[in-house]
């Protein structure tokens, strides 16, 4: 059995497939200033504080944060360009229940502001779940 498509329908289908491929490509490539993590979980202040390195790329960042009584944020500077692309973050507040705050990375060139939510809470274990789906679609699935 053969299907006949009007030439307009074929062009429309090809355009649809092209848009799907373009959107899929755009989702996997990040351009411009960005930071690696937008959510971070930290333990409360302890005898030996846990420090987390918040990494940025493709930008020169100025760092700010909401609660100076909860977090310490120490920018790290690139020696050659005097730009900050990362910051060391640690909790300085003792435990008094779960807390939430934010760190802001502002790119000095574009003015783009990127927010990283920081949660401070006790935790006793970490489980990592990874689920990835990758499907290749071929035109034969559309045409039979």
UniProtKB/TrEMBL annotation:
Keywords: Signal. It comes from the Eukaryota. Residues 1-24 form the signal peptide. The keyword Signal applies. InterPro entries: Ig_NUP210_1st, NUP210-like. Residues 38-121 form the NUP210 Ig-like domain. Coiled coil: none annotated. This is NUP210 Ig-like domain-containing protein.
